[in-house]
Design a protein that fits this description.
The structure holds two protein chains of two kinds. Chain A is an all-beta fold. Chain A contains no helices and eleven strands. Chain A has strands at 4-7, 10-13, 18-25, 31-37, 44-50, 53-57, 64-70, 73-79, 87-94, 106-107, 111-115. In chain A, strands 2, 4, 5, 6, 9, 10 and 11 form a seven-stranded mixed beta sheet that branches. A four-stranded antiparallel beta sheet of chain A has the order 1-3-8-7, with no helix packed on it. Chain A is globular. By secondary structure, chain B is mainly β. Chain B has strands at residues 3-7, 10-14, 19-26, 32-38, 44-50, 56-58, 64-68, 73-78, 87-94, 103-104, 108-113. In chain B, strands 2, 4, 5, 9, 10 and 11 form a six-stranded mixed beta sheet that branches. A five-stranded antiparallel beta sheet of chain B has the order 1-3-8-7-6, with no helix packed on it. Classes of the chains: A mainly beta, B mainly beta. The interface between A and B is medium-sized, with 29 and 26 residues.
């Protein structure tokens, strides 16, 4: 089973709302990732968690706040977003951090976010 | 720094024809290479990966790719295209013992003509 599950699949939120995206994997993977993908573009890395600790933040605005409650769960808290933040948000995981040899990233189906 | 270049943002082939999607990489050390496919409104799915074992790698759905160090290439092929192959394809690279990032190419949209 190489499944990464993301909820919700679609989310519409106003610029003053607070919402969260959720991600879950039960593969025993120790690294988890958030990516943002705009139309016709490759995924852009936002955050990396290794062994439940934030290891990479790609200078993401503070209106995006990641959280890793345990080794299976990853959340992305959203607050005061802008319309340009509308995108597909992809969660992913790998057995170990990518700095180790030949690990594969497994992606979820994504959460489509629309900010109005 | 490592990078990935995919030649052709759009490729069109007829159903039943050969599929060839090109990927070249730039890296100071032997990389790990991946091909992912993204169908409309879905996440990314791993097609195949190269991790320094056999240079010809077979993946899912009849795809394969060959690692050519002399050409710094990792082109994706499929002998006979099917309508269901229409999707976005991303080549990607990671480096051993480096940071925890995967570098994606810009993607190639594959169109299948009936």
């Amino acid at each position: 089973d190489t499944e990464v599950t993301q909820t919700p699949k679609h989310l519409v939120m106003g610029m003053t709302n607070k919402k969260s995206l959720k991600c879950e994997q039960h593969m025993g993977h120790r690294a988890m990732y958030w990516y943002k993908q705009k139309a016709k573009k490759p995924p852009e890395l936002m955050f990396v968690y290794s062994y439940e600790k934030l290891s990479i933040n790609e200078s993401v605005p503070s209106r995006f706040s990641p959280e890793c409650p345990n080794s299976s769960l990853l959340n992305l808290h959203l607050h005061a977003l802008q319309p340009e933040d509308s995108a597909l948000y992809l969660c992913a995981s790998s057995q170990d951090p990518l700095g180790n040899s030949g690990n594969t990233i497994y992606f979820g189906e994504g959460s489509w976010l629309t900010v109005v | 720094a490592q990078s990935v270049t995919q030649l052709g943002s759009h490729v069109s082939v007829s159903e039943g024809a050969l599929v060839l999607l090109r990927c070249n990489y730039s890296s100071s050390v032997p990389p790990y290479l991946f091909w992912y496919v993204q169908y409309p409104n879905q996440g990314l799915q791993l097609l195949l990966k190269y991790t320094s074992a056999a240079t010809l790698v077979k993946g899912i759905n009849g795809f394969e790719a060959e690692f050519k160090k002399s050409e710094t290439s990792f082109h994706l092929t499929k002998p006979s295209a099917h309508m269901s192959d229409a999707a976005e394809y991303f080549c990607a690279v990671t480096l051993p013992n480096r940071d925890d990032k995967i570098i994606f190419g810009k993607g190639t949209r594959l169109h299948i003509l009936p």
